[in-house]
Structures are given as structure tokens and as C-alpha cells.
Design a protein that fits this description.
The complex is a heterodimer of chains A (283) and B (257). Chain A has 283 residues and is mainly α. Chain A has two domains: 42 residues; 230 residues, MetI-like fold, CATH 1.10.3720. Chain A has eleven helices and no strands. In chain A, α3 runs antiparallel to α8 and α3 packs across α10. The termini of chain A are far apart. Chain B has 257 residues and is an alpha/beta fold. Chain B has a single domain, classed as Rossmann fold (3-Layer(aba) Sandwich), CATH 3.40.50.300. In chain B, 36% of the residues lie in helices and 25% in strands. In chain B, α3 packs across α4. The radius of gyration of chain B is 18 Å and the shape is globular. Classes of the chains: A mainly alpha (283), B alpha/beta (257). At the A-B interface, α7 and α8 of A face α2, β6, α3 and α6 of B.
């Protein structure tokens, strides 16, 4: 009898622990989003998102931060496309052509694990050194380069995990119909597309919000970039700059953070709708 | 639809090892055409590996090494280059243990193989092909109103018949079945068994089975594998009713499995 009693207590305690942990996470999410939403929406105005800064970005709270919004899009948009174009083939190479756990796939996986663990600031510093070496100044192109570096390991790392969920039976079934590996890739791609998209979104979401990587590489400018070699402001850097300044600048920081959050949210919703369309026939 | 395919499938001195461990030892067998051959034997005896060698679905196994020949109508699939491998695999359809519909519609599942081989390019031709093979596996009446729906929504038994239709659509000569009924309920299993019996008129069927009663019901030819070696083979009636080898006798009497 007492044995069963102990089990019941154990059950309740463990469930309680899980519940508390979940509540802590939820609480954190709600308070972060709440803070951004409340403070951001108070400060945010149409002027802020539709106009470039006034003369004094850092001393007078006039004008908007359209330059930073555009800058973030200029940097992360191309980086996301390039990142996906590099990562997806790598994922398929190690899961289809190197499906056996050979030395090659082991080394590739290890390399990307290591890259995944490198903090963005180190990427930023590395890219900065390269840029100085080749005589390039902080620019959109520099920002794109470092953001690609940031996205690729994240996408490959999670893409690889997702590709492992493809049942061997499915691969065998396609092969046994006389398909080439390349034709098999297409079937597999359809199967893992939702997961790959999530991996992509997580990577892009993190990249668009990263200030450390673009700090040295994309630089800063009051004006929108007109070419790849122009420096540009970005949203995370705007938040970083303003948050520690006297009022009313922190308000502007929250407004920029809100815009950043909305961008990620829109990106997430749009791509989910697209995936649902494409994978309508999966399940 | 009445033509008898007469291509042959011959295994010649096949040795397979995985990570140095011998799995198949000196296998020599010629599968009789237009018959059902059942490969039986205890777990881990190499039945599935043998089956997978027949269309070389062995490339993804770690530490796999193969020696010998598997002749599909005279062409060796073991040594075939990539281009021939694809062509040879097309001759050998596979019905997996667990049904595995591709992530596409019912129609596309059947049409997929034809498409990659450039068969039936006209839509009407493809429609007819899909109908013909779905009918052949007795699925047409059940799915004709929802051909564009995802295949994964079919029941397990229906999925298995769909997989069979998908294999048949690329016009193979041989059908490999790896415990194709083990994941199915008794009624679906019976349907698949009956299908195989009907299909042997047109195809040579080689199946691995764990259920002796099933082998007794449908096999024309039997191969008894034990520890990677063929202990006994011959017409099913002979192997099952009057086995020559002691091991076969003991296996059939249920002394080990």
C-alpha cells in the first residue's frame, strides 16, 4: 500500500516540476512580448516606420527608422536566400549521398556542429578581419556575408535532424521504382518541407535579430543603402543603440523591437501558409 | 494483359557480410518464373538481406560488402553501373514490410514511377494506367472518387495495396515482398495473399515470410535459410511436406523459430 502511495507522490511531484518549468517559460515569453508590445506600441508611430531619421539620429528624437527596417531586410533577405541555397543541398548530400555513417559524413557533421556553436560576435569579428584584409568597408554586402555564415550552420544542423526522420522504407520504395538519387531527393524534400521550413525560420529569425554579427560588418548609416557597398543601419543595432540612452530613446528602442518582432511573425505566418499549400497531400 | 513474362532471376555464389560478419554464405538459387517463392527461416537468418540484394537496396547499410552475382534476365545487378542499376531495379518491384505511401495523392503515387521513366506521357494514357493498376490490386472502386486525396489517409491495408499498384505500374517482371502482410490485419493480409496468387500469372513473386501457415497456403517454391545458408530448397509441397534435412524438419515442427 505504501509503495503505491510513494508512486503517487512521485507522480504528482514530477508533474508539478514539469508544470512549473512550463509556466516559467510561458511567463518569460509573455513578459518579453508584453513589454515590447506595451512600450513599443506607446512609442511607435507611423512616422517612425515610414520616414528616415532626422539630422540627429542619436541626439534628437526626430524622424523615423525606416533606414534600419530597410537595412535589416536588405541584409537578411538575400542572406536567407543564399543561406537556404547552400544549406539545403548540404543537408541532402549528407543524408542521401552519404547516408551511411562514413568518415566523410562524420567530419561534415562535426564541422557544422562546431560552426553552430560559434557565437555571432566571433563571426562578426572574423568577417570584419576578412573585410579589412580585402579593403572592404562596413556595408550591406558585409552584413549579408556574415548573416549567411550565421544561417547556414543553424539550418544544416536542424535540417539534418529533420532529414533523419525520413523513413528508410520511403527511400527504398522510391529507389525500387528505379528512381535516381536526385529523383528521390524530390520526394524526400516534399516529405520534410514543413520541418525544413521551421529550421529556416528559426535560423532567419535569429539572424534578423542579431546585433553582434552586423555591428562591425554592416556598420551604420542614416540613409538607406543604395548599393551593396553602402553601410546600413539595422533594427537590432538600433535597439542596441537606443536602449541605454536617456528618455525618450528607450521608447524608440522598444518601437524598433516591436517592428522586428512583427517582421519575424509575418515571415513565419506567410511561410507556414505556403508550406501548407505545398504539403497539402502529405497527410 | 495475358502475356507471360519469362525473365529469370538467378542468384549465383552470393556472399554478403556486414561489418565483417557473414550474413549470407554461398547462396545459389534460381527463382522459378511465374511462381510464388517463399523464403522462410528463423529471425536473423538473412532472409531480408537476400531479398534486398535482389534489387540491390543495400547501398545504405553500414559496412556492407557483397560478392557474387544476381542475374536479372542475364544482367548482373551486383556489378551494374548506376545507369543499368536504375533500369534493372525497375524490373524488380518491392512491397515493403510496412506500407509506405509517398507524400502525394493516391493518383500520383501510382503515376510517380511512370513519370520518372517517361512512360504514358499523355494524360489520358496515364489515367488509364492508374485505373488499370488500381483495379488490378482491387483498390479502384474504393478510391476512384478520391484519387486526388493524400495517400496517407488510406487505411493500412489499402496503403499496402496502393504500394503494390505503384510497383506494378512501372511494369516489373518480379515482385519482392518483405513480410508484406506482417503489419496488416487478418482480412487485409488475406486480400494481399489472394492478390499474389492472382498476380503470379504475370509476375514472378519472391516473398519473405515469418508465418509458416502463409507460406504453406501460397508458396509454389520454398527456400529454407538458416544462419545465412540455404539448407533446403525445392517445390513447396516437397519442402513443407517431406523435408529432407533435419534442420528443416525441426523448423517446420516448430522446435525453433
Amino acid at each position: 500500500m505504501s509503495h503505491i502511495r510513494t508512486k503517487q507522490i512521485e507522480e504528482k511531484v514530477m508533474r508539478g516540476v514539469m508544470l512549473v518549468a512550463t509556466l516559467i517559460v510561458l511567463g518569460a515569453v509573455v513578459s518579453i512580448l508584453g513589454t515590447i508590445l506595451i512600450r513599443g506600441s506607446k512609442a511607435l508611430s507611423w512616422e517612425m516606420v515610414s520616414r528616415f531619421p532626422g539630422k540627429e539620429w542619436n541626439t534628437a528624437p526626430d524622424g523615423g527608422f525606416l533606414n534600419a527596417i530597410l537595412g535589416s531586410l536588405y541584409v537578411v533577405g538575400p542572406a536567407a536566400v543564399i543561406g537556404a541555397c547552400i544549406s539545403i543541398p548540404v543537408v541532402f548530400y549528407i543524408t542521401m549521398y552519404k547516408r551511411r555513417s562514413t568518415g566523410v559524413s562524420y567530419i561534415i557533421r562535426l564541422a557544422f556542429d562546431v560552426l553552430y556553436g560559434i557565437p555571432p560576435i566571433v563571426y562578426g569579428a572574423f568577417a570584419f578581419l576578412v573585410m579589412v584584409g580585402v579593403g572592404m568597408r562596413a556595408s550591406v554586402l558585409g552584413g549579408i556575408m556574415v548573416t549567411v555564415l550565421l544561417i547556414v550552420p543553424m539550418m544544416i544542423r536542424s535540417g539534418d535532424e529533420i532529414a533523419k526522420t525520413v523513413p528508410d522504407e520511403m527511400v527504398d520504395a522510391v529507389y525500387s521504382l528505379g528512381a535516381t538519387k536526385w529523383e528521390t531527393v524530390w520526394v524526400v524534400l516534399k516529405h520534410i518541407l514543413p520541418g525544413m521550413l521551421t529550421a529556416f525560420l528559426l535560423a532567419v529569425g535569429r539572424a534578423i535579430g542579431d546585433a553582434a554579427a552586423v555591428m562591425f560588418t554592416a556598420g551604420f548609416s542614416d540613409q538607406p543603402a543604395h548599393s551593396l557597398s553602402d553601410p546600413t543601419a539595422t533594427l537590432p543595432l538600433a535597439v542596441f543603440n537606443w536602449i541605454g540612452m536617456p528618455d525618450p530613446f528607450p521608447g524608440r528602442a522598444y518601437a524598433a523591437a516591436l517592428v522586428l518582432t512583427i517582421l519575424v511573425l509575418v515571415l513565419s505566418i506567410v511561410s507556414r501558409v505556403i508550406t501548407r499549400r505545398i504539403t497539402r497531400l502529405n497527410k | 494483359m495475358t502475356e507471360n513474362k519469362s525473365e529469370s532471376l538467378v542468384v549465383d555464389r552470393l556472399n554478403v557480410s556486414i561489418e565483417g560478419q557473414p550474413i549470407l554464405k554461398d547462396i545459389n538459387v534460381s527463382f522459378p518464373v511465374n511462381r510464388i517463392t517463399c523464403i522462410v527461416g528463423p529471425s536473423g537468418c538473412g532472409k531480408s538481406t537476400l531479398l534486398r540484394c535482389l534489387n540491390r537496396l543495400t547501398e545504405n547499410i553500414d559496412g556492407f560488402s557483397i560478392d557474387g552475382h544476381v542475374f536479372i534476365d542475364g544482367q548482373d545487378i551486383v556489378t551494374a553501373d548506376d545507369e543499368h542499376l536504375i533500369e534493372l531495379r525497375r524490373h524488380v518491384g518491392l512491397v515493403p514490410q510496412r506500407p509506405c505511401p509517398l507524400p502525394m495523392s493516391i493518383y500520383d503515387n501510382v503515376a510517380y514511377g511512370c513519370r520518372i521513366h517517361g512512360m504514358h506521357r499523355r494524360k489520358q494514357e496515364m489515367d488509364e494506367t492508374v485505373e488499370r493498376y488500381l483495379s488490378e490490386v482491387g483498390l479502384w472502386d474504393e478510391v476512384k472518387d478520391r484519387l486526388r486525396r493524400p495517400a496517407a489517409r488510406l487505411s493500412i491495408g489499402q496503403q499496402q495495396r496502393l504500394c503494390l499498384a505503384r510497383s506494378l505500374a512501372v511494369e516489373p517482371d518480379f515482385i519482392l515482398a518483405d513480410e508484406a502482410t506482417s503489419a496488416l490485419d487478418p482480412i487485409s493480409s488475406k486480400t494481399i495473399e489472394e492478390l499474389f496468387v492472382r498476380l503470379k500469372e504475370k509476375y514472378t513473386i519472391i516473398m519473405v515470410t515469418h508465418t509458416l501457415p502463409q507460406a504453406l497456403r501460397i508458396a509454389d517454391y520454398a527456400v529454407f535459410l538458416y544462419l545465412g545458408e540455404i539448407v533446403e530448397e525445392g517445390p513447396a509441397s516437397q519442402v513443407f511436406k517431406s523435408p529432407q534435412n533435419d534442420l528443416t524438419k525441426r523448423y517446420l515442427s516448430g522446435l525453433f523459430s
